[in-house]
C-alpha cells in the first residue's frame, strides 16, 4: 500500500504540476513525436484539409454516439424526383437494349442520347436557375442505379456528367461568367463534358500530374493577353470521344514571375472547348467491351487565357483541393450506385431463377450449397443498399466526407464484384451465354472497371482509408501535427502540452473501455434501441474502442513507418470500414420501420461485419512488428479470445427461405431493378416465371404426394405428368392449364439465346 501511494503521488506530481510535467513528460514526448511524425506531402495535406469529418469520426474515437447516427434522418425523394424516376427513367429503361448497345452498336442509340439530353439526364446536379434539376445525391444515385440494372453503358453515360467533371466544378467554384455560359449548355446536353485527370504516369497518384501549363503572353482573339501554354497527354477519359468541352487538370508554373514570386503554382483546373485550336480528341478505348465512350486527349502548346481557369485566376493552384472535394462526393454516388444496382439485379434474378430451375427433382434454391452463395448475395445487397443510403445522406447534408466515400467506393465495388460472381455461379449457363436474354453477362464483364477507376481499390484500401482516417478522425493527432510544425517552439510546446493531457486521458479511456467490454461481452455498453439489434450496437462500441486503442499504440510505436506498413494500416482501415458499414445496416433497419422480415438479413450482415472487424484486429495483432506491444494489445482487446464467428448455417437457410417467395422484404431489396411490360432483357421473363411457379406451389405438392403414394409415376416428362394428374382427378382441368402456362414461363426463363452459325 505504501509503494502504491508513493507511485500515485509521483504520478500526481508529474501530471499535475505543469513545470514538472513540461520538463519530464511534455518536452521528451514532443521531441519523440517530431522524430516519428509521418511526413505529409503537399497533396496529402491538401486532401486532409479538403474533406470533412462526419460519422466516421464518431466511430474512430472509441465511443460512438448512436443517437447522432439516428438523427441524420431518412433519405427521401421529393415529388419532382419521384415523378422523374417514375416517368422519364422508366421510359429510358424501355428504350434500352443492352445487347444491341454493347454487341452491335458499340454506342447508345441516337434516340437514347437525344432522350437523355432532352429530359435533363445530364443536368441532375446543375442548379435550377441554369436549367438543371438540382436533384439530391440520393435521387442521383437512385437514377443511376435503375439505369445500371439494365445497362452499365447507359448508366455510365449518365453518371459521368453528374459526377466529377465540369458541371460539378463550375457549380461550386466557377465564376459568374463561367456558370452563366456553360451550365445552361451542359443542362440541355448541347455541351457534352468530360474531365481529363488520368494520364499514362498519373493514375491513383493523381497528385503526380505531369501535364504542364506555363504562364506566358500570347495572342488570343487578335490581341496579346496573359494566359497559359498547355501540354497534356491524358487517357481513360470517359465521354472524351463525344465531348464538346474538356475539363483539364495540370501543373501550373510561372517561371518568368508574370503573376508574382511563386514559380510552382500547383495543380490547376481549366475548361476548354474541344474545338479550340490545338486540342486533340484522340482514339477511343475499349473498356472491357462496354459501349460507353472512353478515350484519349492530348495537346501541345495549346494557349488559353487565364480566365478559362475554373473559378478564374484566383483559383490557380487550387485544383487539387477542388478535385478532392468534388471527387469525395462523386465517389460516394456513382460507382456505389452501380454496385448497388448489381446487388438488386442479382437478388431479384437469382432468387427467382433458383426457384424455377430444377435439378435432381428439386428447385436448386433448396440445396444448401446454393443457399450459401445466395445468402451472400442477399446479405451483400442489404449492405449495399444500406451503405448507399447512409453515404448519400452525408453528401446531402452538405458535408464532404472523404474517408466515408473512400470506404463506400472500395467496399461497395468489392461487394458488387462478389455479388455478380455468386450470381454467375448459381445461374451458371444462363449467365455465360451472351444474348438479349442474358441480364448478368455484361455486368460481370464490366465489374473490374469499377474496381480500377476513381482510385484503384488496392491503393484506396491500403493508403487512403486509414491514412486519412487516422489523422483526420483522431481528436488529437492532426492538432498535434500542426503544433509540431509551428515555428515558435515555445508556443508549440505550450500547445502540445495542452493536447497531450487530453490525448493521454483519451487513450486511457479507450484502453479501459476495450478491456472492460471484452471481459463483460459488451453487456454494460449503451444502445439506443431495445430488441434484436441492441447487442450489435454494444459490440460495435467495443470494436470502436479497440480500434482507437490499437491505433494510438500503433502510431506511437511505429510513427511514420505505419504509413509504409500498408498491410497493417489496411487492416486497421478495414475495422473502421466494417464499423461504418455496420452503422449503415443498423440505420437502414431503423429507417425501414424495424421490419421483422428484414431481421434475417440484418443478423447475417451484422454478424459478418463484426466477424470481419474482429478478424482484421486479430490479423493486425498477429503481424504487429513489436511483439511485446502486440501481446499488450491482445491482452486488452481479446483477453479471453475472439468469439465473433459470423453467421451460422441455420441463419443462412432461414435468410434464403425468406427470399424464395414474393414478399415485402424481397421487394425492398430489388426495387432498383424494376420489371415492366415489354422488357425483353430477361429480367421480367424470369420474374414472371417465378411468380407463376410460386402460385402453383400447392399443386406441385399435391402431385409429389400422389407420386409418393404411387398414384402417379415418378419419372415421366412434366407435360405427361400434368395430364395424368388431371386425368386421375388429382388436379382440375383449370389447375392443369395453370401448370401448363407456368411451365411455359419456366422454360422460357431458363432458356438461353442461340445464334446462326457464322
What does this structure look like?
- The protein has 758 residues and is an alpha+beta fold.
- Helices cover 60% and strands 9% of the residues.
- The chain is built from 31 helices and nine strands.
- The strands form two sheets. Strands 1, 2, 3, 4, 5, 6 and 7 form a seven-stranded mixed β-sheet that branches.
- Helix 3 packs across helix 13, helix 14 packs antiparallel against helix 15 and helix 21 runs antiparallel to helix 25.
- The longest helix has 38 residues.
- It is flat.
- The chain starts with a helix and ends in an 8-residue tail after the last helix.
- The model has no long low-confidence stretch (mean pLDDT 91).
Q: What does the secondary structure layout of this molecule look like, with pairings?
A:
Layout: H1 2-16, H2 18-36, H3 42-50, H4 55-60, H5 66-71, H6 79-94, H7 98-105, H8 110-118, H9 137-148, H10 152-159, H11 166-173, H12 176-188, E1 193-196, E2 212-220, E3 223-238, E4 245-253, E5 264-273, E6 280-284, E7 294-305, H13 319-356, E8 358-359, E9 362-363, H14 368-396, H15 402-427, H16 429-432, H17 441-452, H18 457-472, H19 477-484, H20 489-519, H21 534-558, H22 561-564, H23 566-591, H24 599-623, H25 627-637, H26 649-659, H27 664-668, H28 683-695, H29 697-708, H30 718-727, H31 733-750
Parallel strand pairs: 1-4, 2-4
Antiparallel strand pairs: 2-3, 3-7, 4-5, 6-7, 8-9
Helix pairs in contact: 1-2, 2-20, 3-13, 6-9, 9-10, 9-13, 13-14, 13-15, 13-28, 14-15, 14-23, 14-24, 14-26, 15-17, 15-18, 18-23, 19-20, 20-21, 21-23, 21-24, 21-25, 23-24, 24-25, 24-26, 28-31, 30-31
Amino acid at each position: 500500500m505504501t509503494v502504491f501511494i508513493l507511485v500515485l503521488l509521483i504520478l500526481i506530481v508529474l501530471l499535475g504540476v505543469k513545470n514538472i510535467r513540461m520538463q519530464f513528460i511534455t518536452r521528451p514526448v514532443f521531441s519523440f513525436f517530431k522524430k516519428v511524425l509521418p511526413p505529409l506531402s503537399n497533396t496529402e495535406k491538401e486532401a486532409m484539409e479538403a474533406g470533412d469529418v462526419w460519422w466516421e469520426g464518431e466511430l474512430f474515437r472509441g465511443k460512438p454516439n448512436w443517437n447522432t447516427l439516428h438523427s441524420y434522418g431518412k433519405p427521401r425523394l421529393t415529388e419532382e424526383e419521384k415523378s422523374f424516376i417514375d416517368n422519364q427513367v422508366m421510359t429510358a429503361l424501355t428504350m434500352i437494349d443492352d445487347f444491341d448497345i454493347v454487341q452491335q452498336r458499340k454506342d447508345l442509340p441516337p434516340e437514347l442520347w437525344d432522350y437523355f439530353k432532352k429530359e435533363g439526364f445530364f443536368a441532375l446536379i446543375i442548379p435550377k436557375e441554369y436549367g438543371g434539376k438540382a436533384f439530391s445525391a440520393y435521387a442521383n444515385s437512385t437514377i443511376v442505379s435503375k439505369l445500371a440494372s439494365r445497362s452499365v453503358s447507359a448508366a455510365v453515360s449518365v453518371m459521368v456528367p453528374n459526377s466529377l467533371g465540369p458541371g460539378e466544378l463550375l457549380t461550386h467554384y466557377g465564376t459568374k461568367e463561367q456558370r452563366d455560359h456553360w451550365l445552361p449548355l451542359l443542362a440541355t446536353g448541347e455541351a457534352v463534358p468530360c474531365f481529363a485527370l488520368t494520364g499514362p504516369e498519373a493514375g491513383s497518384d493523381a497528385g503526380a500530374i505531369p501535364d504542364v501549363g506555363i504562364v506566358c503572353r500570347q495572342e488570343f482573339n487578335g490581341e496579346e493577353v496573359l494566359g497559359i501554354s498547355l501540354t497534356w497527354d491524358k487517357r481513360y477519359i470517359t465521354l472524351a470521344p463525344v465531348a464538346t468541352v474538356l475539363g483539364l487538370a495540370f501543373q501550373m508554373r510561372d517561371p518568368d514571375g508574370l503573376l508574382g514570386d511563386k514559380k510552382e503554382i500547383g495543380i490547376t483546373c481549366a475548361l476548354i472547348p474541344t474545338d479550340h485550336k490545338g486540342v486533340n480528341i484522340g482514339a477511343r478505348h475499349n473498356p472491357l467491351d462496354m459501349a460507353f465512350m472512353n478515350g484519349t486527349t492530348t495537346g501541345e502548346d495549346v494557349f488559353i487565357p487565364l480566365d478559362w481557369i475554373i473559378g478564374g485566376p484566383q483559383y490557380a493552384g487550387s485544383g487539387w483541393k477542388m478535385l478532392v472535394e468534388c471527387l469525395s462526393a462523386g465517389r460516394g454516388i456513382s460507382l456505389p450506385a452501380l454496385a448497388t444496382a448489381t446487388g438488386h439485379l442479382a437478388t431479384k434474378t437469382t432468387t427467382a431463377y433458383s426457384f424455377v430451375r430444377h435439378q435432381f427433382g428439386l428447385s436448386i434454391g433448396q440445396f444448401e450449397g446454393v443457399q450459401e452463395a445466395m445468402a451472400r448475395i442477399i446479405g451483400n445487397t442489404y449492405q449495399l443498399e444500406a451503405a448507399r443510403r447512409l453515404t448519400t445522406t452525408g453528401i446531402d447534408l452538405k458535408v464532404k466526407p472523404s474517408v466515408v466515400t473512400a470506404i463506400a467506393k472500395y467496399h461497395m465495388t468489392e461487394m458488387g464484384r462478389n455479388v455478380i460472381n455468386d450470381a454467375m455461379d448459381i445461374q451458371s449457363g444462363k449467365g455465360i451465354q451472351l444474348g438479349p436474354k442474358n441480364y448478368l453477362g455484361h455486368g460481370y464483364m464490366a465489374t473490374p472497371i469499377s474496381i480500377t477507376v476513381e482510385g484503384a481499390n488496392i491503393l484506396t484500401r491500403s493508403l487512403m482509408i486509414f491514412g486519412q482516417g487516422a489523422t483526420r478522425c483522431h481528436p488529437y493527432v492532426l492538432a498535434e501535427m500542426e503544433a509540431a510544425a509551428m515555428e515558435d517552439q515555445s508556443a508549440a510546446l505550450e500547445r502540445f502540452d495542452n493536447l497531450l493531457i487530453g490525448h493521454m486521458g483519451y487513450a486511457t479511456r479507450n484502453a479501459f473501455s476495450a478491456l472492460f467490454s471484452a471481459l463483460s461481452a459488451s453487456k454494460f455498453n449503451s444502445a439506443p434501441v431495445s430488441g434484436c439489434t441492441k447487442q450489435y450496437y454494444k459490440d460495435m462500441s467495443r470494436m470502436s474502442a479497440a480500434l482507437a486503442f490499437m491505433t494510438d499504440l500503433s502510431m506511437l510505436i511505429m510513427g511514420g513507418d505505419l504509413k509504409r506498413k500498408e498491410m497493417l494500416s489496411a487492416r486497421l482501415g478495414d475495422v473502421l470500414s466494417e464499423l461504418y458499414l455496420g452503422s449503415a445496416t443498423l440505420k437502414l433497419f431503423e429507417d425501414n420501420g424495424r421490419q421483422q422480415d428484414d431481421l434475417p438479413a440484418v443478423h447475417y450482415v451484422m454478424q459478418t461485419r463484426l466477424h470481419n472487424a474482429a478478424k482484421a484486429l486479430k490479423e493486425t495483432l498477429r503481424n504487429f512488428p513489436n511483439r511485446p506491444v502486440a501481446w499488450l494489445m491482445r491482452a486488452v482487446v481479446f483477453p479471453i479470445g475472439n468469439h465473433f464467428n459470423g453467421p451460422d448455417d441455420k441463419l443462412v437457410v432461414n435468410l434464403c427461405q425468406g427470399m424464395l417467395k414474393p414478399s415485402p422484404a424481397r421487394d425492398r431489396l430489388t426495387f432498383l431493378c424494376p420489371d415492366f411490360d415489354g422488357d425483353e432483357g430477361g429480367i421480367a421473363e424470369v420474374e414472371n416465371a417465378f411468380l407463376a411457379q410460386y402460385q402453383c406451389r400447392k399443386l406441385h405438392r399435391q402431385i409429389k404426394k400422389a407420386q409418393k403414394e404411387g398414384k402417379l409415376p415418378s419419372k415421366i416428362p412434366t407435360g405427361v405428368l400434368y395430364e395424368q394428374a388431371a386425368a386421375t382427378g388429382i388436379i382440375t382441368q383449370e389447375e392443369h392449364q395453370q401448370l401448363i402456362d407456368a411451365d411455359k414461363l419456366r422454360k422460357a426463363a431458363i432458356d438461353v439465346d442461340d445464334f446462326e452459325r457464322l
